Amino acid sequence: MRFLNIGAYPRRKWLLALGLLALFLASSSVLVYQQIQKAAIQESIRQRVDSVTSLAFYSERELLRLDNAIANEISAPGGIDAERLRLRYDIFLSGMAWLRDSPSLGDLAQSKQYRGALEHLDAIVAVADPIFAQKVLARQDIDRLRPLLQRLEIDFMAFSAAATSLESREFETLSKKMLKQSNLGFGLLLTQLTLMALAVTALILRNRKRRAEQAALIELNEALRLAQEKADVANQAKSHFLANVTHEIRTPMNAVLGMTDLLLATRLDATQKSHTESIAKAGRSLLMLINDVLDFSRIEAGHVVFENTPFQLDDLVQSVCVIVEPAARAKDLVLRSFVRIDPGQSYLGDCLRLRQVLLQLLQNAVKFTDKGEVSVSIAGVARGLRFEVRDTGIGINATALTGLFARFSQADASSTRKQGGMGLGLMICKRLVEGMQGRIGVDSVPGVGSVFWFEVPLSRAPSTGTRSTLSQTPSAGALAGQKATPATDHAGKRVLLVEDNAINQVLALAHLRRLGLTADVADDGQQGLQAANAQAYDLVLMDLQMPIMNGLDATRAIRNGNGPNAKTPIIAVTANAMQSDRDACMAVGMTDFLGKPYSHEAFDACVLRHLH
Hints:
This protein is α/β, with parallel strands linked by helices. Helix content is 60%, strand content 12%. The chain has a five-stranded mixed β-sheet with strand order 2-4-5-7-6. The protein has a five-stranded parallel β-sheet with strand order 10-9-11-12-13, sandwiched between helices.
């Protein structure tokens, strides 16, 4: 016993204890590290599941957005917004590219659900690319995509379910392996560290991709904003161009038609009268064509504003019948009108637009009817009023009826057709009626005749005890047949004519002299203002677009000044035919509005109305 180093035992025990403790700590550290590593791997798997789920959700969301955009465009009135659909389709394709190449798919890339979704996606692209490559999208074409999109939506749901199931199985398998490999120690630790590094790398890559997508979205939003600004500028330029075209065309047309009327009032032989009447007829046809083109441009630009003012039905019917009556009489046609409800009852609506539609239908009926009669009738229906124009003309076959209200469409579009035209009139009628929340249609039998009808939801206007007029400024046709007051009734009355166009000055002065009126002429707005401040006039005829000072500024200065004509009636006589021009005239204090070109009947009625 004495050879034993008793003092060494405590040291050995401490060394053993320290060794055991170190081993325990090492084992515990390994176990703890394994648990930490296991938790990290579980988090990585969860992130992968979230990534795949987000991928499926994003793809399904873009799919639904494209489907909803197509459904909205199909159900919306008017034309299809092709650019909006193409943008939505491009966004959808970018999301599908992510679906094809995402590193998060793993074994899911070999699943039948994923392959089935890609097959249906390829089928959609094969059908959709040719459709969206077209300049104009047709409803029937894009409607073909909806069943394919709905089938792909089902595939995405199956793909999402498969992803969840597969990832759950992978998690289970990995957990079992972790339990079996708990004795690998340091090797398992290194494996866990490697897996953690891979998970971090995947997270970094995903974050980078997400930042890139966010940057792409920001760039796309900026591009959309710039595109919207460019579109607004283009629309504004289009409006200015339309206004300038209106003025520049109507100004010489006023001279052509006005001088032709003056020439017809002189003594002409038969040949001269025939030639002059041909000029007048061609000029009126050209004016109708110009009006159709301008109306079409306004409708396409969305610049048509509908009013809601009171009017009488008999005024409306009389105004259109008076216009078409000479053409009907020339063809020995009977022109009839029937107002099957109280004709004196006032209704609220846009009487000018109603008159435009009714006049277009009546003119078409007279144009395509060679014998018999043409009639217009108004009757009450459940949703408002029904207007019908019936003729005994050539009729329209069933094939032509289907596209009759489309733009540039004609029942007879052949080069040998008897009647001309651009095919805009009925399209304009349809847009105007639909703009008034109504509907329009036609019933026709070839060789028997046609019935064009439209219904609009008009309400009765409250009684005011006075009779309302059709509009502030009657049309030329509506005033045909009205007799000018004899010249002796206006002896001594003076008119100030502010007009920069020399030919239109001659025309207006001729009309004023015929009415027995004395007139002074100013060549621009500044001269007109000086004349108005120097002498009192009974009436002022004011052009709008003039050099130095325009008619609006001159009228504003006259109204705001203390001159002798601050209360004198001022009539705008202008080729600016936009509704905004009329509103601007009323805003500065003008009394009435006479658009160029005008007939002598319209000129007489407008002038005499404000001299009484």
